[in-house]
# Entry
Amino acid sequence: MPTYEYECLKCGRIFDEFQSITAPPVANCPREGCGGEAKRRFSPGAGFIFKGSGFYSTDYRSESYRKSAKAEGATPQPAGASPSETGKSGDSSSPPPKD
# Structure
């Protein structure tokens, strides 16, 4: 279920509502004593983060990104490589895979 962002037209409060796509929009501000009209705001929502191999954003990153990721401890895998093939590229700076 998505989270929708609303704004009260009376008090200006911005709040989120976790509701079904088919649920009617919230009509009034939930703040006690306000009762103002609430309007759904246009918001980008949550972004997706694709991690691991098999995604364009991880397999085809720039060389500088791969180097910094490697320095941080993450090991980006090349496209089509299985997890057991990591560390077998002949690069002496990468640790051998753990079994």
About this structure: The beta strands are 3-8, 14-18, 38-40. The first strand starts at residue 3 and ends at 8. The chain is about 15% helix and 15% strand.
